[in-house]
């Protein structure tokens, strides 16, 4: 277990002090998982470095982050696969249940310009 405190080095929020609280690196069936007590976006690779992980040596790195990670990780990866999981930050707007929206409206309806 470690205290996750560092200063962001990536273009997104460079110089920002990050405190993700207590964290631990779990290893399950050959998979490294980092769990933090304080929720934060992953802006750069520092959280991995603090846990002894060099992401450049990894075949796959998965982040729970919406878009902010790209500033640092696009340069560190061959390609990025975006996953649209259910929740408030879904990319597919048609999945939300709208009750007071005048229709048709872009991007919910395909025939709207």
Report on the architecture of this protein:
Residues 2-100 form the Microcystin LR degradation protein MlrC C-terminal domain. This is Microcystin degradation protein MlrC. InterPro entries: MlrC_C. It holds the Pfam family MlrC_C. The longest helix has 7 residues, at 70-76. The mean pLDDT is 86. The chain has a three-stranded antiparallel beta sheet. It has one domain. Helices cover 10% and strands 21% of the residues. It has helices at residues 46-49, 70-76; strands spanning 2-7, 17-28, 31-36. By secondary structure, it is mainly beta. A hairpin with a 2-residue loop joins strand 2 (17-28) and strand 3 (31-36).
Properties at a glance:
21% strand; Microcystin degradation protein MlrC; 2 helices; three-stranded antiparallel beta sheet; 113 residues; 3 strands; MlrC_C
Topology readout:
Elements lengths: L1 E6 L9 E12 L2 E6 L9 H4 L20 H7 L37
Antiparallel strand pairs: 1-2, 2-3
